[in-house]
Specification:
The chain is of the alpha+beta class. Helix content is 59%, strand content 6%. Helix 20 packs parallel to helix 24 and helix 26 runs antiparallel to helix 27. The longest helix has 39 residues. The chain is globular and about 100 Å long.
């Protein structure tokens, strides 16, 4: 309900600004009693939580409570409290396994948190974890302890910009340089589809050298995504740094322009010592923000240069369209100012300033306006026609920029973000843009499918050699997808096939798929054709990549060893390095040492961490776990990483943890039936035959020709004394196995046990059937 949303908003403002309920309800007196009641309830819950999670009293920024005890979090040693808000607390901690200082943020309310608070906390962790920029605080780990979600991030020791501004006004050129740095970081977030929505000096941390890092993405949201967390009419942010559209709750409050406004407010405060809009009460601040222009900084600080003032005031335009279009443009203008070059922003013309005054004082200008109405009507028609054409051009530029951001997300592997941008992006009536969008969405579907095939091929299967099932299955899937893309029949002229994809945006992704397909093929002629096609699509003029795809080198240990020694200098894709790792292992060379070099060179690559972990799993399961966890930190929804981590945990007899990761793998849509098979075996070993049967049945449903699935189902049914069903499972397994299969005799013996047990159970008197003896196999 809208009233409940308003109450939640007012409570949030109280927690962020320490204002009284009477102050925040000045414009909504009818909500005062409800706000007081909800605030009291929140304080009661907070008090109960604080008895469970107290902390030390030696924090840098002292919290509002006296904490006496540190929370216990496995793997971390809590040192002190850095800060506390209405929803969570930030500790300084030591990550014990790496012996490094981190900042650890915890959602205090835990299981008592409102769904909105929990979703914001998780969204903040996901938003920051997806960003890689030297001036954005980096997230290291996300976890949960006793129902209290937390995540760790780098510890920034220099305090906040707010603290520095409270101590002294900053030098003008230093202020411009700092804001340019922050603007570049904001642009990186926007390019990754994330809007901060609460930029302010308190959320800009400083290193010991004074370098800024953006923090606190608690109100961040993705562009064209997670709309369920934002509602029309809700004001989110800190009033003195909020854009007018945030204050009024317009739909544009979720656009990148709100961050541009906040950057202008931060620059204004660095230049003048205070934010551009601040009143004695919340309602007065709101009124000034919406209806008044910011006082030019030079009136408060005569040392402010005119160009820097122009940059600042352009950021603070009421109309989002009049601000800088991107944070990158803002940063570029600041850097022009620092280089003493002409800036692109222009000061507000006297006519524009006069028009703004007219809009604020309509009654005083009514008579003067009346005398010129006819002239304005004629002129406005001409202006309207020009404006429509200009708007049309501007709209196409905007749509093209959004489309290109979606393409970048696709090529960088950020598929969910690419889909969110492209599917929801309108074409504005431009036929060429519609054609490009439709083509790229189709490419996205194909590329996601190729990635799923590559990950599924790496699945670890319990107790059996998965390659004999997974590789032929993957090869068939690859052939089907590439046929849909337009590859044509295998063995067509490689040069002709390659020519079809010369100008394709996704050519690099297609080459990665061809490289992996070649590993699945056992037919040498098909394998050679795939490698030749990959060479032509990824022309290397007989360089390293060309030699790597020479089938003559795939079986020669000396050639592969030389390729490994020169691989990193050639800078190929991580996926092609993984292909080399698999070939090294196939000929008996040390693939582990090579894949460690690959991971060390590409520590932020999901695939490099997964491939190294897979290489380590059989010989050093304990070490492999660390790299599986790194892969999952980069891609939490990767079913293959959860499945293979579970296999490593099983090797260390950590069965319950393994079961938990199998279940996590199955949470993701399209997870292959092999994971059900693995989970069923783990449950059967733990004594839970009933749930194991359900998982084996799911596995068989998606993999009807997988004999091991029928064997496992038969064994589980036999344990449950369901002899007739067990016999059916073993009969189906025998149907699938070739006559020469070495396991046929054992399966036939198990089938005889079932038939004898079934006959024995059905031929005894009713009072004796409960004592039926299970055969042991």
């Amino acid at each position: 309900m809208a009233t409940d949303i308003q109450i939640d908003e007012l409570i949030e403002i109280i927690l962020e600004t320490n204002r009284t309920p009477e102050e925040v309800c000045a414009q909504h007196p009818e909500l005062l009693d409800d706000v007081r009641r909800q605030l009291l309830l929140l304080r009661n819950v907070e008090a109960q939580i604080l008895t469970l999670f107290p902390t030390t009293g030696d924090s840098v920024a002292a919290p509002s409570h006296n904490w006496n005890r540190k929370p216990v979090i496995p793997g971390y040693e809590i040192e002190s409290t850095l800060g506390q808000g209405g929803m969570g607390v930030v500790y300084k901690a030591t990550q014990l396994n790496l012996n490094r200082s981190v900042a650890l943020k915890m959602l205090l309310a835990g299981v008592h948190a409102s769904p909105q608070d929990h979703m914001r906390f998780v969204r903040e962790a996901e938003a920051v974890a997806s960003l890689r920029h030297p001036h954005i605080v980096q997230v290291f780990d996300v976890d949960d302890v006793d129902g209290h979600p937390f995540y760790t991030m780098e510890y920034v020791e220099g305090g906040s910009l707010a603290k520095r501004l409270a101590e002294a006004r900053q030098p003008i050129r230093d202020s411009a340089q700092l804001l340019a740095t922050v603007a570049h970081a904001v642009e990186a977030a926007h390019q990754n589809g994330i809007i901060h929505r609460d930029l302010k000096p308190a959320n800009i941390l400083l290193t010991a050298e004074g370098s800024p890092k953006i923090s606190d993405f608690g109100l961040a949201r993705r562009i064209d995504l997670d709309m369920q967390l934002t509602y029309t009419g809700i004001r989110l942010g800190t009033p003195s740094y909020m854009a007018p559209e945030q204050m009024t709750g317009k739909s544009s409050a979720a656009d990148p322009a709100v961050d541009i406004f906040a950057l202008g407010a931060i620059l204004y405060e660095m230049l003048t010592g205070g934010p551009p809009f601040r009143g004695e009460t919340l309602s007065e601040t709101e009124q000034r923000l919406i209806s008044q222009e910011a006082t030019p900084p030079s009136r408060l600080n005569p040392k402010v240069p005119r160009d820097l003032e122009t940059i600042c005031l352009r950021c603070l335009e009421k109309d989002p369209r009049k601000r800088y279009a991107t944070a990158a443009e803002l940063a570029a203008d600041l850097e022009r100012f620092l280089r003493h070059e002409p800036i692109h922003a222009r000061p507000v013309r006297p006519t524009e300033r006069a028009w703004r005054w007219v809009r604020r004082n309509p009654l005083l200008t009514a008579l003067a306006v009346t005398g010129t109405v006819l002239v304005i009507i004629v002129a406005s028609d001409v202006a309207h026609q020009w404006s429509m054409a200009a708007t049309r051009r501007s709209e196409k530029v905007r749509l093209t920029a959004r489309y290109e951001s979606g393409v970048r997300a696709l090529l960088e592997g950020r598929y969910a973000e690419a889909r969110a941008v492209l599917v929801k992006l309108g074409d504005g009536g431009f036929k060429d843009i519609r054609q490009r969008i439709d083509r790229t969405v189709a490419d996205l579907d194909d590329i996601e499918e190729l990635d799923r095939i590559r990950e599924e091929r790496r699945l670890a299967l319990n107790g059996i050699d998965g390659a004999r099932f997974l590789n032929p299955r993957a090869a068939a899937k690859y052939e089907k997808v590439f046929a849909r893309i337009g590859l044509g029949p295998v063995h067509d002229d490689p040069e002709l096939v390659a020519s079809r994809f010369t100008d394709s945006d996704i050519k690099r992704k297609l080459v990665i798929g061809l490289d992996d397909w070649s590993l699945c093929e056992t037919d040498e002629s098909r394998q050679q054709w795939l490698l030749e096609l990959a060479r032509r699509l990824d022309a290397d003029d007989f360089g390293w990549r060309h030699r790597m795809r020479d089938p003559a080198n795939w079986h020669r240990a000396e050639a592969l060893s030389h390729l490994a020694s020169t691989a990193l200098a050639a800078d190929p894709t991580v996926q092609l390095l993984g292909v080399l790792g698999e070939r090294l292992d196939a000929v008996g060379l040390d693939a582990t040492a090579f894949m460690k070099q690959v991971q060390s060179t590409h520590p932020d690559s999901f695939y490099a961490n997964l491939a190294l972990a897979d290489t380590l799993r059989n010989d050093n399961a304990a070490e492999s776990i660390r790299y599986y966890q790194a892969a999952l930190a980069l891609r939490p929804t990767a079913a293959a990483a959860h499945n293979n981590l579970a296999a490593a945990l099983l090797a260390l007899d950590r069965t319950q943890e393994a079961v938990a990761h199998y279940r996590k793998a199955l949470q993701h849509e399209g997870c292959p039936g092999f994971v059900h098979y693995n989970l069923g075996l783990s449950l059967l070993a733990s004594g839970d035959a009933a749930e194991a049967i359900e998982n084996f049945q799911w596995a068989i449903k998606s993999l009807p020709n997988f004999p091991e699935g029928h064997i496992a189902l038969g064994k589980a049914l036999f344990q449950q004394q369901r002899y007739a069903e067990a016999a059916t499972a073993f009969v189906e397994c025998l149907r699938l196995l070739p006559e020469s299969a070495p396991t046929r005799a054992a399966i036939e013996e198990q089938l005889r046990h079932c038939e004898l047990s079934h006959h024995d159970a059905t031929s005894r008197p009713p009072d004796a059937k409960s004592g039926a003896t299970k055969a042991n196999f």
